[in-house]
Amino acid sequence: MTPITEVEGRRVPLSNLDKVLYPQTGFTKAELVHYYATGADALLPHLRDRAVSFLRYPDGPEGELFFTKNVPPGTPEWVTTAEVPRSEGPARMVVVQDLPSLVWAANLVAEFHTHQWLVQDPDQADRLVFDLDPGAPAHLVHCCEVALWLRERLAADGIEAYPKTAGSKGLHLLAAVRGSSSERTSEYAKALAVEAERALPRLVVHRMTKSLRPGKVLVDWSQNAARKTTAAPYTLRARPAPLVSAPLTWAEVAACRSPAELEFQARDIAPRLQDLGDLMAPLLDPQAAARLP
Fold this sequence. Notes:
6-stranded mixed sheet; DNA primase, PRIM domain; 6-stranded antiparallel sheet; Alpha-Beta Plaits; MtLigD_Pol-like; NHEJ_LigD
């Protein structure tokens, strides 16, 4: 029988809680659900009012991985959903608005990925994002160097960027924007990626062509497209260990000398939140959003 837990008055079924999802550390599904439930105060604001895609890995990162974009079968009626535009026609997706919905979604065993716009206004981007992805032998330290250059370049346009780990190999930079479509935001991001390649030709590439990427950092600007999603702050990732896409201070980025220095697992997040708070909280303030030049 599937156990039921009550979360803020909602009955949420939980299954296979003893299953080990990350054999490298023995991290179980119960620990995954606990991580999301106890970190909800930080995670939920970054999910709220955004259509969510789930990268599911119910048998752990070494099992089958698959994206779920449409509302999954069996979704409780109290979970918020929204119709979102797609090139092939509108679709209905989950919007994680509260703790019961977050715990229900955690039971699916998933990464949380969101668009760079809110469901209330899908025609307007409210986020700018760069995904810095190193091609071996380049690594996270090289991503930090590129991130620092991008920070200064964005600041020159009046845009404040906030870094987080991808939870895998690279870094993400996010900024709050307003008054622009996803298309315009993508154009701006691409222009900066091209500029970064010109400024740091031995380190940066802005095209995804595989033959160009060894030893360089891809400044992936494409996730600003309206149809694209990016791993949300604080989401667990489907990696060998329970790594988290963790917000960083710029001091940590500047001081990084080894990729291991910026690898954070689920157990590390609560102490960081206690000491540093949500480093990406400024993204949630509409008054802090910048207009693109």
